[in-house]
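Hello,

I think I submitted the zinc ion job twice by accident. Can you confirm which output corresponds to this input? Input:
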Amino acid sequence: MKFDMHVHTSYSERCGWMKPDRLIKHAIEKKLDGLAVTDHDTIDGAMEVFDIVKDQQFELDIIIGEEITTDRGEVLAYFIDREIKPGPFLDVLSEIRQSGGISAIPHPFDRIRKGFLGTEKVLGEVDAIEVLNSRCLFNSKALDLCQDRKKPMLGGSDAHFYQEVGRAWTECFAEPRTCILEGRTRIGGGLSNPGYLALTKGVKVWRKVISGSV
Ligand SMILES: [Zn+2]
Ligand SMILES: [Zn+2]
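Support: Only one job matched these inputs. Its output is below.
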């Protein structure tokens, strides 16, 4: 089963673009079996995608996720049952655990966007590491680290635009949560066209204009 474990909808306030219903269509077209919707600091988009899939009985597994801002950098949460507020890293991790979720560090060594402060130091605290992010040019260090330390690995597109959906994925051969925790995943895919990163910057400016802060 192929899951794109990192996707943003229009609910990602400053940079999101994709409408939940069209995102679902694109995911099915790309032959994904599932998606983790991981908006910045909200699960509203994930819930909407989940509800549409359920109502219309699409064959797509939706994982409720979130990309949460912490003082060390962003943290991904999966399988959560409530929205988790940004905060200190360890507090956010314990919230994720309490809500029955699992945690991962996205694009840990990204030098263009914000990376993560001290990935090696907190390796024991998080459940997995994103080793392939289609918008990140610094994936190989994360892969080396996980192979070295036998840490569960994830891959996802970090899609903000429809064309990016499914560009990278995590393959699970059984129930995804257990597979991830046990490190039994296979990562596939590649990088997106760097033009999409530039486009995201455009969306951010446009959003600011709309909200009147430019
Ligand atoms: Zn991120
Ligand atoms: Zn992201």
